Amino acid sequence: MTLADIYPTFRTASGFKLNNFKEERYPSQLQIQLQLRVSLFTSEENTPSPRECYPYPPSFERPPPILAVIIGINKYSSQEYNNLTGASADADAFEDYLKTRLNVPKQNICSLRDEDASRRAIISSFIWLRDNTAYHRDEAAIIFYFAGHGAQTQKPAEWDDWITPTGNIEMLCPSDIGTLTGTDGVRRQDEQGVVPGIPDRTISVLLSQIADLKGNNITVILDCCSSAGMVRSAKQERYTVRSIINPPAVNSHSDDSVLFSGSRGGRMALRDLSKKHQRSHVLLAACGRENFALEDPKTKRGLFTRHLLKALDREDIGNLTYVSLMHKLKMPERQTPHCEGDGIHWRLFNNQVSGADKSMILTKRDKEKQETILQAGSAQGITIGSRFAAHATNLIETHMQPNPCLGYFVVAHVDTLSSVLILPPDSPTFRLPILFYSKLDRLANNSIYVYSTDQAWLGSIFPSDLRSKLSVVLADTRQCCDLELTVLDRIVYFDQHSPLVAPYIGSRMRYTAEADDVETIRNVVKASLHFYYNLARSSPCQFNDVSMELHKLSAEMTEEFDKVFIPTGQNLMAEEPATVVVDEDAPLGITIHNNSLNRALYPYLFYFDPADLTIVGWYLPPIGAGKYAQTTKVDAPLPPRSTLAIGHGDGGATPWSFVLPPDVKKDLGFFRLFLSTRPASFESILQERSPFEGGPSRSVKSTVPQILPEGEWSVQTVTLIQFLAMSRYENLLDVLSKEPVWSPDNEQAILEPFTYITSNPGKEIRGKLIEAFNIWLKVPSDKLQVIAKVVNMLHAASLMVDDIEDDSQLRRGTPVTHKIYGIPQTINTANYVYFLAYQELFALRGTETSAPPRQPLDALVTAELLSLHRGQGLEILWRDSLQCPSEEEYITMVNNKTGGLLRIGIKLMMACCTTNVDIDYVPLVNLIGVYFQIRDDLMNLQSTEVYTSNKGFAEDLSEGKFSFPVVHGIHADKSNRQVLNVLQKRPTTPTLKIHTINYLKNVTKSFDYTLSVMANLEAQTRAEISRLGGNKGLEAIMDLLHVDASKFS
Questions:
Q1: What is residue 758's three-state secondary structure?
Q2: At the N or C end, where does the chain have fewer CB atoms within 10 A?
Q3: Which residues form the signal peptide (predicted)?
Q4: Helix (H, G, I), strand (E, B) or coil at 361
Q5: Quick one: pLDDT at residue 428?
Q6: Residues 6 or more apart whose Cβ sits within 8 Å of residue 614
Q7: What is the mean pLDDT of residues 335-350?
Q8: Pairing relationship of beta strands 282-285 and 218-223 according to DSSP bridges
Q9: Of the ranges 228-242, 270-284, 738-752, 846-860, which is most confident?
């Protein structure tokens, strides 16, 4: 697809003429959570809606479709600049890869070559991505590929807000750069009278606009360079450099007409230019700032694209992250590609599934030296004797994508930025690829001393056989402990006896745990060990010529109506400890100065929050690929005598402001700046998940990166005390006149009971039924995803209420929700989730490209929720009034209660299906629902060891529930009231329950009767499945639910 296909009405004899693109301003709404609970300066949260695009492994979720711009320029119109020989071929090869390997349709690709790739046409291609109507936000992956010349030039004086390390700007060179008249026939109005390049500032704004409207699943691939020097010497080595010298100067107003107009009408102010642009996209660049992107005139191909496509062809794209791609990218020694952006740990072209585990450290087997090298050393806190688990990939392990441990290594030798691993004594050997990943299992020579006045209880939490593995020592006294655990009313309080924290905010942490929550308690201790070890350890040297400043940022409007953030006021880090008055409306930014005359540095900035023990990456440099990925051929973000802006300018994090939790007047945090003289990976320091949040933390032959002599490293720490401002209510009337603010923190807090119950899934029968019925109904994947989500939400909400009404104790082996969060919060969350589920139904409405549902969805869901509550109400009424229903009344109740939830999913599918639209599957669903509930009733009374551990022994008897076997037993001998009497007593001890079960099993033969009814229902269900055409998915579900009667004898 070319621009003529996109905008055919604007094609002219001399080129392309574009309409006036206009766009509304979309305010950013993603709130970053660090200890600093960062304010609103970024893009919205993702709402994935994948569509079919390219093949994927069976265990891998379907990736999103791809929308791509592919540009290759060999021929440059100006005689002042040399032509290239391989850029167009590179673009053709990359386009062929998208079409043949990833099945990207032609209409999803905007393809520009040579003279068609004018400045105006390239900018138009960005606008085509931004304004494309085929995909909504987060529905498509976006790729921008450019092969051609790049350049550097002096920054316009008016762009003082655009801070760069060298003071220059970088640019892409369109085919008409340097000409007096563009190829579209329109005379340029630049002061220089010539067509300029496209500066990085313009590209950053365009990418931010695309990210605002389409999401940040954007990959920018640049096979060009911007180095301005030594081009001739490089060319002597038979390679051509993709860079031009002395490009036209850039007018500060060159792109006003584009940047101030959008697709939806109305003049707009530019997106905040001080926003960290790496958040909008991932960049794969052929080389660094001071190196070269080379092409070979003999092969007529660029080195980077050629080797990139080889890697993509060789590897399973479903298992590649951007980081692992760089690790496995084979490059000649003369060129070192770079990768940067917040999304470098995502899967390639796919941010909708789990990506890389950041704690995984690249490891390589050196065949020549017969050594195994871990790419981390003393700078990262590695110690001799530490144990690491080996993994084939760096992916987060999930149920659908396992990444098992292949074996263990121990550290035998530690250097500054690398370590040597060996097999433990008597350890079996195991096979590994040349490159693999290691995850810390146990840090040697480092322990945490834990104390509690209840030594017996503490010993049960940390039995002697686990203490060594967890690096825990039980302290004898409070005075010699690092962490104190106090148990009051079965609640555990944590006190951090750290001299770095306690003098400022006291020792008591604001979060607690239940005394029997062993997993959380151990996680808190483990997280504390990692947190304080990395906070307290020192470096062997100090780089005293590096300083760090924290400033308030002033939001200013330039004459072009750009909103930019400028540092203002005094340095808030001038003293140690530093103090900051919390003002949620005052954005902050950091500036790092390298005043060294000859030392280039790689900075790694982290924020340590002792309140929840998290360690968050604030700034991490780009990563390199190839043999020199561990050398200074990777760009140093802090060259000698340079400045790095974080939160403003062209690098660093988004501006933020401190926010204190309710009822907290004072808080504490630490910035730690790790500095290295060569690239390294410090991400194993990260601890992004708080232990108080619950849940899990989260064969290829390849060229091995060369390890050069070890570099130097240093670390600086800034203690930051935050105080609450007292003028919060001075303008309360103005505040209350605005729309109520609802933050992601608030949403997460009130949904915590819902998150708790869904984090422990059950048999997932409803999800399996949806998948099975879709064999018949063929619901579009985006709508099917919404339906599954709605059903899961409604089911979880009903369970929370059901457990309260039944006074249950366990749900799937863990305490029920209201025992953790209390009845009021649980009820409120359940009701809230009901309404959220209704909101989700809006996504099932018809669009311009899809037909509307065949019946009103809200009426459908409302009817079935009424049925559910009618069934639940009857069951409660019978229980509380000790009124035994007939079997027919029981079946009707079950069809309302259990059947209601099952019918919601299938009826929604029937309303949105594309096949078998006239077939009624509801009777089959009703059969399955009744069978499922009667089976559950029987299994509850049978109570195998597995069932008992999940729900408790014969829990239905404790709840006084009239289950199916109980109903039969009561009616089988109405003169005997012992079952009714047992239900009235709600027994909790096994003795009475066992007596009642034996009575139902041996006297009334209720178990045998229930099994016969189930056999009848199962036969009817299988017969109905066969009558409807057969369904292997449903047959598998019935096989799973089948009960062997012989086990009940």
A1: helix
A2: C
A3: none
A4: strand
A5: 85
A6: 34, 35, 608, 687, 688, 689, 690
A7: 86
A8: parallel
A9: 738-752
ω into residue 50 within 30 of 0, thus cis? no
Q: How far apart, in whole angstroms, are the C-alpha atoms of residue 925 and residue 923?
A: 5
Residue with tokens 């850039």: 250
- Alpha-carbon span 230 to 870, nearest angstrom: 81
How many Å apart are CA 243 and CA 150, to the nearest integer? 5
Average pLDDT over residues 473-491: 93
**Structure tokens that stand for 410 in this block:** 């121990």
Give how far Cα 148 sits from Cα of 142, 237, 329, 551, 828, Å.
20, 19, 21, 40, 58
Taking the alpha carbons of 786, 789, 795, 796 in that order, is the dihedral positive or negative?
Answer: negative
With contact defined as beta carbons under 8 Å apart, do 607 and 550 qualify? no
Q: Which of 553-557, 561-565, 679-683, 1022-1026 has the lowest mean pLDDT?
A: 561-565
Tokens of 740: 């109520």
List beta partners, residue 495: 484, 508
User: How many Cα atoms are found within 13 Å in the side-chain-facing hemisphere of 698?
Assistant: 19
- State what percent of residues in the chain have pLDDT above 70: 80
Q: How far apart are CA 334 and CA 292, in angstroms?
A: 8
Candidates 2.60.40.10, 3.30.70.120, 1.20.210.10, 1.10.600.10; CATH matching 751-1047? 1.10.600.10
Instruction: Give the dihedral sign, CA 85/86/92/95.
Output: negative
Q: Contact 638/600 with Cβ under 8 angstroms?
A: yes
Helical pair 1032-1041 and 922-942, crossing angle rounded to 10 deg: 20
Residue 900: Cβ within 10 Å count: 24
Query: What is the rounded end-to-end Cα distance, in angstroms, of the chain?
Result: 70
**3-state DSSP assignment of residue 934:** helix
Spatial separation of the C-alpha atoms in residues 753 and 895, rounded to whole Å: 28
Both tokens of 375, joined, read 């790419």
Beta strand 387-391 with 435-442 is antiparallel
Which residue, among 67, 66, 117, 65, has the nearest Cα to 91 in the 3D structure? 117
Q: What is the pLDDT of residues 589-612, one digit of tens each?
A: 899 999 988 888 999 999 999 999
| Residue among 513, 445, 507, 515 at smallest CA distance from 482 | 507
Q: How far apart are CA 175 and CA 77, in angstroms?
A: 6
CB-hemisphere CA count at 13 Å for 306?
Answer: 15
Q: At what angle do helices 964-972 and 887-912 cross, to 10 degrees?
A: 160
| Predicted model pTM | 0.58
- Concatenated DSSP letters of 564-578: EEEEESS-TTSSSSE
pLDDT for res 44: 33
**Residues 829 and 750 sit within 8 Å (Cβ to Cβ):** yes
- Tell whether the model's pLDDT for residue 631 goes beyond 70: no
User: Which element (helix H / strand E) includes 325?
Assistant: helix 322-328
Q: H-type helices in 594-706, by residue range?
A: none
Is the separation of the CB atoms in 166 and 290 below 8 Å?
no
pLDDT, tens only, 220-262: 999 998 643 333 334 435 788 888 888 887 776 666 666 555 4
CB-based burial of residue 828 (10 Å sphere; 0-12 exposed, 13-18 middle, 19+ buried)? middle
Tokens, residue 834: 């009901």
